[in-house]
């Protein structure tokens, strides 16, 4: 595919969306890995998706404020539930998160069972449609992400368990509608996992993995005329594996402390 003006017009909103997701999800993903709750993003994102599907089933405007409120309400409800379960049963929190994800996934399938476009809706939720990001929505979404980043870096030590889950739920709710569930997961987990044993400039390395993954994945998908979401997932995973393979084979002092 030739990268003419038309291709660039499609590419730049998708790239901006990917970089916005990377900006917020890399630091949040590192915290997720530290807490040992890797699959929380899948659970919260899936619950937010159920909120979107339910709003659509009720006939609400797909891009309207009501759908966003439904998605955010569902995600926040899930976040508060997981906050309570982490306090009540911390030893089995990861298993609880898995159960929440499976239940939400099953609820989504049931809600879409009689929808003639149900399969397409489910695919959009999982894989996303990053190439069809609406440029007009990006300034508002950039503002939301900016607030999330300001709260995270400014108040991280004072947020506590509830504050973390609420910020996480807000970020995932926006992101899953922008790029899909798979990209949300890989952007959260792969940079954090790739830099687990190499803590020097860890945040910078994580940002580079995510940013390069989106840039190269988008260009490669357009050049090869292949789906962008899966291509970006594969590229980010490849960069993450490369960083992990080239890094130290034993935990650094910070990583070792977290393993004990």
Which tags fit this structure?
single chain, 260 residues, mainly alpha, ABC transporter involved in vitamin B12 uptake, BtuC, 80% helix, globular, disordered C terminus
Produce a short descriptive summary.
The protein has 260 residues and is mostly helical. It has helices spanning 5-35, 40-57, 65-88, 93-112, 118-127, 138-179, 181-194, 202-224, 228-246, 253-259. It has a single domain (5-259), classed as ABC transporter involved in vitamin B12 uptake, BtuC (Orthogonal Bundle).
Number of strands: 0
Which class of secondary structure composition applies to the elements? Answer: mainly alpha
The second-level CATH architecture is Orthogonal Bundle
* Average pLDDT figure: 83
Structural Rg: 18 Å
Percent range of helical residues: over 70%
The secondary-structure element order is: HHHHHHHHHH
At the third CATH level, what is the topology name?
ABC transporter involved in vitamin B12 uptake, BtuC
Q: Would you identify the CATH H-level superfamily? A: ABC transporter involved in vitamin B12 uptake, BtuC
**Describe the biggest sheet?**
none
Which shape, going by the Cα principal axes?
A: globular
- Beta-strand level of the residues, as a percent range? under 5%
Low-confidence stretches: 256-260
End-to-end CA span: 51 Å
CATH class category label: Mainly Alpha
Tally of discrete structural domains: 1
Total number of helical segments? 10
């Amino acid at each position: 595919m030739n990268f003419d003006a038309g291709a660039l017009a499609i590419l730049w909103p998708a790239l901006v969306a990917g970089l916005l997701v990377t900006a917020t999800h890399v630091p949040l993903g590192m915290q997720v890995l530290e807490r040992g709750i890797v699959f929380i993003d899948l659970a919260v994102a899936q619950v937010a998706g159920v909120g979107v599907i339910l709003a659509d089933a009720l006939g609400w405007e797909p891009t309207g404020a009501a759908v966003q409120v439904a998605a955010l309400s569902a995600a926040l409800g899930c976040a508060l539930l997981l906050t309570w379960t982490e306090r009540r049963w911390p030893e089995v929190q990861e298993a609880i998160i898995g159960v929440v994800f499976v239940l939400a996934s099953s609820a989504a399938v049931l809600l879409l069972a009689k929808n003639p476009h149900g399969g397409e809706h489910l695919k959009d939720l999982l894989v996303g449609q990053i190439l069809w990001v609406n440029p007009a929505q990006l300034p508002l979404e950039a503002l939301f992400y900016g607030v999330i980043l300001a709260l995270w870096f400014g108040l991280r030590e004072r947020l506590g368990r509830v504050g973390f889950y609420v910020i996480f739920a807000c970020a995932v709710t926006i992101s899953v509608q922008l790029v899909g569930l798979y990209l949300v997961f890989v952007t959260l987990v792969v940079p954090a996992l790739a830099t687990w044993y190499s803590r020097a400039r860890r945040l910078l390395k994580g940002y580079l993995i995510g940013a390069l993954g989106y840039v190269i994945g988008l260009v490669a998908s357009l050049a090869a005329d292949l789906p962008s979401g899966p291509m970006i997932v594969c590229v980010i995973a490849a960069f993450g594996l490369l960083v992990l393979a080239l890094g130290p084979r034993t935990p650094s002092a910070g990583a070792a402390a977290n393993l004990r």
